[in-house]
Each structure stands twice: as C-alpha cells, then as structure tokens.
Amino acid sequence: MSAPLLGADGVGIGLRTPHCREILERRPALGFLEVHSENYFGDGGPALAWLERLRAHYPVSLHGVGLSLGSADPLDDRHLARLAALAARVEPMLVSEHLSWSSIGGHHANDLLPLPFTQEALDHVVARIGAAQDRLGRRILIENVSTYARLPGSTIPEAEFVAEAVRRSGCGLLLDVNNVFVNATNHGFDPHAYLAALDGASIGEMHLAGFERAPGLLVDTHAAPVADEVWSLYEAAVRRFGSRPTIVEWDADIPPLDTLLAEAARARKVSA
Ligand SMILES: [Fe+2]
So what's the pLDDT on residue 2? Predict the structure, then answer.
C-alpha cells in the first residue's frame, strides 16, 4: 500500500478557489487539501500559483475527473502526460480517478457516467487502470461514483464490481461514502452489505459530501452539508476499516470556509 494512512489527522477538504487566500492566511489545521487535477494542467496561471503556495503548508491529493477510465475511446496519452507532469510538480500524497466514463468517439461529457456492471466492462476497465498506473509510474485510487440508472445487461452487483476492479488492477479504492448511500437509496441495496463486500486493506481514502432530495431519488450535488445518514455510514465504515484520509467535498453553492472546516472537524471526531 503506497498511500499513506494518516489516521485522525488525515481529514481535509476539497480546495476551492474562493477559499485559497483565506486558507493561506489562516492555515487551519487540515490533514491535506484535495484538488481537481485538470484545473492545474496549464503551465502557469493563478490557480497553479495558489496551489504551489498552499502546497508549502499542506499535503495535496490530486483527484481527476477527466481521464474517462471506463470509456471505449483510446486512453488519452496527452491527459496522462499532463497528469504525470502535475504529479512531478506537486508530489501529491495520493492520485485518484473515477470508476466511470465520460467520453465517446472523442466527445467529452461533463459527467461521470456509469459503467455496465458486466464481465466485459470489468476486464476493460481493469486493463485501463493498469495502463494508467504504468504510465504514471504509481498506484492510483479509483472512486465509486453516484448513479441514477443501472445500465442494461448489468449482471454483477456494484460492490462486487468495484472490489474486483480494485483487486485485479492492483489499484486502491477511494471510498465515497456519500456515493454508496446515494446509490443504495436510488437502486435499493443495503449500504452496509456494500461495505462488507469491500477489501478494507485496499481503501486509501474516503470522501464525504452532501446530496439533495428529488422526487424518488437522491441527487449527488455536492452543494449541501453531509447528511446524518451519511455520517452514520461513515462511522460504520471507520469502525469496520479503521480511519483513512478523508475529505469533505463541496462543489456548488460553496459556503464560507468555516462551514467546511466544521464538517472536517466532525469527520476528524469520527475517525479519531
Ligand atoms: Fe467523491
């Protein structure tokens, strides 16, 4: 396991532009900062300058949203080269991506789309994760995503698909606890049985975020506080697996920094 296990101190937040200056000035006690890799693919600019200043004070994890690991398109060498260059620059404690796809025929969607849970898709994504790890020269984590539909032909339960993708590719798992709860509600499975199907040793990080309720389903908006049910599931995950580096993600309707810090403090209490 190359990912450091930071224990109780390993609770951080997703870094968002409106908070950069305040974090640098106040230096709140955070285990690490997580950024979306693609926002820093340029050779310079203000975003990268902020990141480099903050990196002097905090470990950073690189969380990608654009590699499209599950796509049938060729793996994007240019994207991987830029990610490798960014990793060389910021020396992240973790590099992660999603178990999803977002491109078809060279066209990119701005979404993390679900894979069919089939043997064929599993073989495909395992090979792609392996190729990405080879190109980056490091182990990555892949994250379970939130979904609103099951693709036709799916024959493998989600947790089993995720666990097998991780086991066979030798990557680690970024367990998004909110995504487990959202999918359990949307697709009608037991979130605790999902946790039980995972290999705890493979989990290198956990995510917490907020969802919103829509008629008949939960929407993973990252625009709300972590729900009580997700806190309970996080407690169960920490009890089962032990504490892991954890961040609170908030991507829309971004609140004052203190709101995020309070969520992180609550996560720290759970994982202590
Ligand atoms: Fe997440």
Answer: 36
Distance, CA 153 to ligand 1 centroid (Å)?
Answer: 26
Contact call for residues 6 and 206 (beta carbons, < 8 A): no
| C-alpha 90, offset from chain centre | 18
CA of 135 to the centre of ligand 1 (A): 24
Residue 186: CB atoms within 10 Å: 20
Give distance in angstroms: CA of 222 to centre of ligand 1: 9
Ligand 1 centre and the CA of 41: distance in Å?
A: 20
pLDDT band at 5 (very low <50, low <70, confident <90, very high): very low
**What is the band of 264 on the pLDDT scale with cuts at 50, 70, 90?**
very high
- Strand partners for 213: 218
Please report the pLDDT score of residue 256 as a whole number.
98
Distance from Cα 227 to the centre of ligand 1, integer Å: 14
124 alpha carbon – ligand 1 mean position (Å):
22
Show Cβ contacts of residue 173 under 8 Å, excluding neighbours closer than 6 positions: 141, 142, 143, 144, 162, 163, 166, 198, 199, 202, 203, 204
- Find the 208 Cα to ligand 1 centroid distance in Å: 7
User: How far is the C-alpha of 93 from the C-alpha of 103, rounded, in Å?
Assistant: 28
- In this structure, which amino acid lies at residue 110? N
Q: Kindly report the number of other CB atoms within 10 A of residue 63's CB atom.
A: 25
Tokens for 239, please give them.
């009890």
